[in-house]
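Appendix C: a fully annotated inverse folding record. The material below is reproduced so that readers can follow the format used throughout the book. The structure is listed first as tokens, followed by the designed sequence.
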């Protein structure tokens, strides 16, 4: 599907450290971006490349564009993250302020999993790595946020995809290291790390039907 005329593309789909088929060492998004840049340019030999990511991959892709605009030609996202309270409200537009309020409401209703991941990941990991039922319930609970009425189809594309997702974490025993990435990023963000600089790398964003919307100035904003 990525072939157009006589043009073709290579797809490089690495496994994020701490997830699935990688080692059980959690790294922050910026450190993973450094690895991806080394992988693409030094190991695989590409002079330039595009990058795409969503959810955790969004943060990695954003760091790639910010740190390495000389080799990253363009980026694509399925989300752009959330305001985290470090922004200066005086510099925000009315729409941005309304979006921040919307995110805060979402955080209190659906964001408990991320708060646990970011603050007490090891406490959570013991239970999830010990019980496949607990693991399945935890992944299903946050993976299906906002997906109704058929949450399995909407969130995972069906039972086979859902069970494949869960089993990758179970058989590799990487649920603990995967949730620790949240804390690694949180510590970096709140521990004095410099924010990512703005970049001129072209970016595209895909917004899918299940993404929630909010009202700003009488209009629905995705």
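Designed amino acids, in order:
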């Amino acid at each position: 599907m990525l072939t157009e005329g006589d043009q073709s593309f290579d797809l490089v789909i690495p496994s994020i450290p701490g997830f699935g088929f990688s080692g059980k060492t959690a790294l922050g998004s910026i450190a993973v971006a450094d690895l991806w840049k080394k992988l693409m340019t030094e190991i695989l030999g590409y002079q330039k490349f595009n990058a795409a990511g969503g959810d955790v991959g969004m943060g990695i892709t954003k760091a790639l564009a910010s740190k390495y605009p000389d080799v990253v030609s363009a980026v694509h996202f399925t989300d752009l993250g959330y305001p985290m309270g470090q922004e200066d409200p005086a510099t925000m537009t009315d729409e941005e302020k309304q979006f921040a309020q919307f995110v805060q409401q979402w955080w209190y209703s659906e964001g408990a999993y991320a708060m646990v991941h970011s603050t007490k990941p090891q406490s959570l990991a013991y239970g999830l790595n010990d019980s496949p039922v607990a693991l399945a319930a935890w992944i299903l609970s946050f993976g299906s946020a906002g997906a109704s009425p058929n949450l399995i189809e909407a969130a995972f594309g069906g039972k086979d995809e859902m069970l494949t997702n869960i089993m990758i974490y179970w058989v590799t025993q990487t649920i603990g290291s995967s949730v620790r990435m949240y804390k690694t990023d949180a510590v970096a963000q709140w521990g004095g790390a410099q924010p990512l600089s703005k970049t001129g790398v072209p970016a595209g964003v895909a917004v899918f039907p299940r993404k929630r919307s909010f009202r700003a100035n009488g209009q629905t904003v995705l």
